[in-house]
Design goal:
Elements: E1 2-7, H1 21-32, H2 34-45, E2 49-52, H3 64-77, E3 81-83, H4 96-99, E4 106-108, E5 115-119, E6 124-128, E7 152-158, H5 173-178, E8 183-187, E9 193-195, E10 201-204, E11 220-227, E12 230-237, E13 243-249, H6 255-261, E14 271-277, E15 279-280, H7 286-293, E16 299-304, E17 307-308, H8 321-335, H9 339-356
Parallel strand pairs: 1-2, 2-3, 3-4, 6-7, 7-8, 8-10, 13-14, 14-16, 15-17
Antiparallel strand pairs: 1-11, 5-6, 9-10, 11-12
The structure holds manganese (II) ion.
Manganese (II) ion (MN) binds near residues 55 and 188.
Length: about 350
C-alpha cells in the first residue's frame, strides 16, 4: 500500500487584482501558507509520495519569500515530491524551476516528453512531463502503452481532458485508458473531477484555494491509498476561504431587509457575491447597500439582475418632467426589438428617475 498526496494549481503569487489592495495582500499571504498546510498533511497522514501536477506558480514573477516558504515546506515533507510544470509555470532554462535550488527530495520533470523515475522500495514508477512553453497542442499520452509488470505505475501531468484540440496538453480518456498507467494525477482543470478512463484512475483535485467566484466552494487535494488493482481516494479540504454566490429575489421586498436576513454564517471569513433578482421599481442602490453591509462581510460585491417593475410607468401621464420623461421612454421601451434594447431603456429609466428625484444610484 502506497500513500500518495495529489495536488495541483496552487497558483502561488496570484495577484488577486479584483480585490481591494489590503485583502489582495492577505489572500497572497494565505496562498503562500498552502504548502505548509500540505506538509502538515503529509506528516500527519504518513504520505509517501507527493505529486504536484503543475501551475504551482501563477506566472514568471515569483516573490523570493514564496520560494523560501515553498522549498522549506517541500523539504519538511521528507518524502519524494514530483512536480510536472504546467502552462502557467512552464519549465525553461531562465525560469523559476531552473533557477531555484530545490531540496534533495524534490524531482522536477523538465522535458516535454515523458520520463520515468523508479522508486524501487515502494515498487512504484512515477512518470511525468513538463510544459516547456505557455501551451502545447501535442497529445503527450498518445502512443503510450506501458507493460504491466507488477509495479504501481503513476503519472503526474498538467493536461486538459476537456477539449481534444486544447492548447494546454490535450489528453483523452481513450489515451489514458490505453496508457497502462494505474493512475493519472492531473492538473489544469480548477475543479475536482474524476474521469472514466478504463482501468486507469484519472483525476483532478482542482485549485486548493479558490481565487474567484468562478472557483466556488471548498478547495482541496486528493489523498490516495494505492496498491495494484485497488485504490482508495479521499478528498481533503485545505482552503482557507471560499467564494459564494447568493441569489436574492427582491420582488415586493426591500433589498436592505432581504440582505439583512440573509447574512451567511461565514460572512466574516468567506467572499460573497450577491445577485439580486426579481422586479423592482427603482433598481438596487448598490452603493448604499455596500455602505450598510460591508462591515459584516470579509468581502462583498453585488450584481443587479433585477428587472423593471411593471407599475414604473404609472406616472407617465403626469404633467411633470417625470411624466414627460416616462412617456418618452415608454414609447422607446415598447418599440425595442431585442431584450438588450429593452434592458438599455430600463436602465435609462432608472438613472433618469434617480436624477429627477435627486437620488443616488
Ligand atoms: Mn491552472
Amino acid at each position: 500500500m502506497v500513500k500518495v498526496l495529489h495536488a495541483a494549481d496552487l497558483h502561488l503569487d496570484s495577484p488577486f487584482t479584483s480585490l481591494p489592495p489590503q485583502l489582495a495582500k492577505l489572500r497572497r499571504e494565505e496562498l503562500r501558507e498552502l504548502p505548509d498546510r500540505l506538509a502538515e498533511l503529509v506528516r500527519a497522514r504518513g504520505v509517501q509520495i507527493v505529486l504536484l501536477a503543475g501551475d504551482l506558480f501563477d506566472g514568471e514573477r515569483v516573490y523570493p519569500e514564496t520560494i523560501e516558504r515553498l522549498t522549506a515546506a517541500l523539504a519538511r515533507m521528507g518524502c519524494p515530491v514530483f512536480i510536472s510544470p504546467g502552462n502557467h509555470d512552464f519549465f525553461h532554462p531562465g525560469g523559476v524551476y531552473a533557477k531555484t535550488v530545490w531540496p534533495d527530495n524534490v524531482y522536477i520533470f523538465t522535458t516535454a516528453d515523458i520520463r520515468a523515475v523508479e522508486l524501487s522500495r515502494l515498487e512504484t514508477v512515477v512518470c511525468g512531463a513538463a510544459f516547456t512553453g505557455p501551451s502545447r497542442t501535442d497529445h503527450v499520452l498518445s502512443g503510450l502503452h506501458l507493460p504491466k509488470d507488477g509495479r504501481l505505475l503513476l503519472m503526474v501531468l498538467h493536461g486538459d481532458t476537456t477539449a481534444v484540440n486544447s492548447a494546454y496538453g490535450p489528453v483523452t480518456a481513450e489515451e489514458a485508458a490505453a496508457s497502462g498507467l494505474d493512475c493519472l494525477c492531473l492538473g489544469h482543470v480548477h475543479k475536482k473531477l474524476v474521469l472514466d478512463a478504463g482501468t486507469t484512475d484519472c483525476r483532478y483535485p482542482g485549485a486548493p484555494e479558490g481565487r474567484g467566484f468562478d472557483e466556488p466552494g471548498p478547495g482541496g487535494i486528493w489523498l490516495g491509498q494505492l496498491e495494484k488493482g485497488r485504490q482508495e481516494w479521499e478528498f481533503v479540504q485545505v482552503s482557507r476561504r471560499e467564494h459564494h454566490t447568493l441569489e436574492l429575489n427582491v420582488t415586493n421586498r426591500d433589498p436592505v431587509t432581504v440582505l439583512r436576513r440573509s447574512i451567511p454564517e461565514r460572512a466574516k471569513s468567506d467572499l460573497y457575491r450577491i445577485v439580486f433578482t426579481g422586479e423592482t421599481a427603482r433598481g438596487i442602490d448598490r452603493k448604499g447597500l455596500e455602505r450598510t453591509f460591508q462591515e459584516k462581510f470579509c468581502y462583498l460585491e453585488m450584481v443587479d439582475k433585477t428587472t423593471l417593475a411593471g407599475d414604473i410607468w404609472a406616472r407617465a401621464g403626469e404633467e411633470t418632467l417625470r411624466g414627460l420623461f416616462l412617456k418618452e421612454l415608454r414609447t422607446k421601451y415598447d418599440r425595442a426589438v431585442t431584450e438588450e434594447e429593452r434592458q438599455q431603456v430600463a436602465l435609462a429609466v432608472r438613472y433618469g428617475l434617480a436624477a429627477i428625484e435627486g437620488r443616488d444610484i
